[in-house]
Design goal:
The complex is a heterodimer of chains A (418) and B (276).
Chain A: H1 17-26, E1 36-40, H2 45-50, E2 54-57, H3 58-67, H4 72-80, H5 89-102, E3 120-125, H6 128-141, E4 145-149, H7 159-181, H8 187-209, H9 220-233, H10 236-255, E5 265-270, H11 278-287, E6 290-296, H12 304-310, H13 320-328, H14 337-351, E7 356-360, H15 366-369, H16 372-383, E8 387-390, H17 402-414
Parallel strand pairs in A: 1-2, 1-3, 3-4, 5-6, 5-7, 7-8
Helix pairs in contact in A: 1-9, 3-5, 4-5, 5-6, 7-13, 8-10, 9-10, 12-13, 14-16
Chain B: E1 13-19, E2 23-29, E3 35-42, H1 47-59, E4 69-75, E5 87-88, H2 91-102, E6 108-112, E7 117-122, E8 128-133, H3 142-151, H4 156-163, H5 177-189, H6 194-216, E9 222-225, H7 232-242, E10 246-248, H8 255-275
Parallel strand pairs in B: 1-4, 4-5, 6-9, 9-10
Antiparallel strand pairs in B: 1-2, 2-3, 6-7, 7-8
Helix pairs in contact in B: 2-8, 3-5, 4-6, 6-7
Classes of the chains: A alpha/beta (418), B alpha/beta (276).
């Protein structure tokens, strides 16, 4: 019967992530580590390290709150301030959080999420909300801001021009950092961090490739849990973690240890992830012997796309800013539909033995919701795979109803002919 | 209860129970795939009681005891709570199977239930190719019609009949049930004919469904199931919007339960064959 609880055999070392991330956020209170920047979007964190500036990613902080399902209070504060319910829920959590801090209501914020006020704001313009979000934070805290525009890549032949466009802005950002820290930018440290990222990317990619095994030794959910240090921390401890992660996944692959006792359905996930329902979705899929194998989200940061484009020889240590700019140009947000179909779907479907695809069309994220039904149709026609477009949200709890989602997932699995 | 020890291998029934948000449906098939009995009752707040009630209703109709159910498939939102069930299968798969039994040529299904609506694309065997459902919204569902009919002080049937007498085109643009109700009240206060408002409501449901059909791609013939399929006004509005004729069975509400019962028979035969 389908009601029995199935065991999900997670990659064990992911249990260390919580401690790594806790330490990272504790460091935000260490004034000896330079001024603090709140970063909106996936930012060039290597540069902050080279400028002795503490930084964290606001989305990561919002996701952290959501995984414990404590996001509703912040969303309510932001909506009471006038933000529409359709605005990105990451933004609403973070802006609600910022408003509470600015109003002196920190005592209402659970201690584990508290942060110091920022000295500056940074945003990477991957969607219009990022700019407005950055503007709001800058206004709330009366601190300077810097925005880097990520070029939308209309024509792959213009790759070099796009990378140079981003790189030129990163040079301006170096001057911004020097002005606000009063210190010269440490180019040698930047090289060290970029080299570190290269090593992290190699470990990460190797671990992910092992998920082509049947049964898969790690799930996409393991990867989602593990991606925090790679995407936001980026230090020596992060590299040590990814070596452990790779080694454990490799050992499991060698020993034939899978995520599930019985792996019947291998699913690809496309889009950002409902962090507040990570455990629910994991159990829901396991109940029907289904496992998320691969996916396109977050893993793109020094992940598959970046590696395809700039590894193994592309990590140009003589030109670290170009490497960082190229990595930013590898994101899904800036790519055309046909590029996404080829690089995101084809590779995952063909190489990871995928049985069905779930495309998350988040209610409050326009970049990830764009063209989802066109993607679904193309996957169905080209790869003859069933597709579920799941309209929920990355963090807003109002858009996720367990019974509705379970019915859709079960119906998807029922269409797979096995 | 022992469902698999009946002496006569041709004696027994295969049950499909569809526990929907508004109504619960049950169909019992015999070995010859004939419907021996079916029933539809409102879903109460305690689903177990509703299920017990519909089983009792079915077995009061000159059937042998409940022990003669060889296999039972439960479907619908309450499927997990049916103790009698050997297996739970989603209403998407069950509707596809039920339609395939009645209209084997069907390629697309619109199912409008009490609180959701879905469009299903099927192959020649009645297997689901793809599906889309409305989310988090009662617009375009049976509940939407009930709310609007209440605000017009009409029954659903009266509203359907009146809508066909419409002479002037007005629009109800709101996609939200609550806002649409306000819009309807506003139209009434402006003196707009109730028949015109009823027709506008049907078109608003049709727009919603056409959007779902277009997402999945229209393949003909198209069959409509669920309680709203009995509303001729809505059916006509969808036919006009898509410029097609829609096929409807005599008992569209029972389709999911019927599909579940057919799947139950198939599962029983597969298990018996594997043992032999």
């Amino acid at each position: 019967m389908s009601n029995e609880k199935k065991i999900v055999n997670r990659v064990k070392c992911t249990a260390n992530i919580s401690g790594l991330m806790d330490n990272f956020y504790k460091d935000m209170f260490d004034d000896n580590k330079g001024p603090l920047c709140w970063c909106v979007g996936a930012c060039p964190y290597e540069m902050f390290s080279a400028a002795n500036v503490r930084r964290f990613q606001t989305e990561n902080h919002a996701a952290r709150i959501s995984t414990r399902q404590e996001q509703a209070m912040f969303i309510e504060v932001a909506e009471a301030e006038g933000l529409s319910e359709n605005v990105c829920s990451y933004a609403k959590i973070n802006i609600g959080f910022a408003l509470m801090m600015a109003r002196g209501e920190e005592d209402k914020i659970p201690e584990r999420y508290r942060l110091p006020k920022p000295d500056m704001i940074f945003a990477l313009n991957t969607c219009p909300t990022m700019i407005q979000w950055c503007d709001m934070l800058s206004d709330i805290f009366k601190v300077p801001k810097f925005v880097v525009d990520a070029a939308y890549i209309y024509d792959e032949n213009n790759w070099d021009r796009n990378v140079e466009y981003v790189k030129s802005q990163l040079y301006d950002f170096v001057r911004f950092l020097e002005k606000h820290t009063g210190q010269p930018f440490d180019w040698a440290r930047l090289n060290e961090i970029v080299y570190l990222m290269k090593q992290i990317a190699v470990e990460w990619r190797a671990a992910r490739e092992l998920c082509k095994n049947v049964p898969t030794p790690a799930s996409f959910l393991d990867a989602l849990i593990a991606m925090g240090p790679k995407n936001t921390v980026r230090d020596e401890a992060s590299l040590a973690f990814y070596k452990d992660f790779h080694n454990e996944v490799a050992q499991r692959a060698k020993d034939g240890i899978g995520v599930l006792e019985q792996e019947k359905y291998r699913i690809m996930w496309r889009g950002n992830f409902p962090w507040h329902k990570l455990g629910t979705l994991s159990r829901m899929l396991a109940k029907y012997d289904a496992v998320l194998i691969s996916g396109v989200y977050g893993l793109g940061t020094y992940g598959d796309h970046a590696i395809d484009n700039i590894l193994p020889d592309g990590f140009d240590l003589s030109d670290p800013l170009r490497t960082i700019a190229a990595e930013h140009c590898c994101r899904s947000y800036t790519r055309r539909f046909d590029w996404k179909m080829d690089h995101e779907f084809r590779r995952h479907i063909e190489e990871f033995s995928i049985d069905a695809v779930i495309i998350h069309s988040p209610r409050t994220c326009r970049p990830w919701a764009l063209t989802t039904y066109d993607m679904a149709r193309e996957v169905e026609e080209k790869y003859k795979l069933p597709v579920l477009v799941l309209e929920v949200d990355h963090t807003d709890p109002n858009y996720f109803h367990d019974a509705q989602v379970e019915t859709r997932i079960k119906a998807l699995l029922e269409t797979i002919k096995k | 209860m022992n469902k698999n020890n009946a002496q006569d291998r041709k004696d027994g029934y295969f049950a499909g129970i569809d526990v929907g948000s508004t109504t619960t449906k049950m169909a019992l098939l015999d070995f010859e795939k004939k419907i021996r009995v079916s029933s539809i009752i409102p879903t109460g707040p305690i689903i177990k009681k509703t299920v017990d009630k519909i089983i009792n209703i079915c077995f009061e109709k000159n059937l042998n005891g409940i022990d003669d159910i060889k296999y039972c498939v439960a479907t619908g939102y309450g499927r997990e709570i049916v103790d009698l069930a050997d297996e739970q299968i989603t209403e998407i798969t069950c509707h596809a199977k039920g339609v395939n039994v009645i209209f084997p040529q069907a390629k697309t299904i619109i199912d409008i239930g009490g609180q959701d609506s879905k469009v299903i694309s099927v192959d020649d065997n009645g297997s689901v190719l793809s599906f889309v459902m409305n989310d988090k919204c009662a617009a375009g569902t049976g509940r939407f019609l009930e709310v609007i009919a209440r605000s017009l002080e009409l029954s659903i049937d009266e509203m359907a009949t009146l809508s066909r007498q419409s002479k002037k085109r007005v629009e109800v643009s709101s996609m939200c049930t609550v806002f649409a109700e306000s819009e309807v009240i506003s139209l009434v206060s402006q003196g707009v004919e109730v028949s015109d408002i009823a027709a506008a409501i049907n078109r608003s449901i049709a727009r919603r469904l056409v959007g779902l059909v277009q997402r999945i791609g229209l393949r003909l013939p198209l069959v409509m199931t669920g309680g709203v399929a009995q509303n001729k006004g809505v059916v006509k509005a969808i036919e006009d919007a898509l410029n097609i004729d829609i096929l409807i069975s005599t008992e569209p509400q029972i389709t999911g339960a019927l599909g579940a019962a057919h799947i139950a028979l198939k599962r029983f035969q597969e298990r018996r064959d594997s043992i032999e």
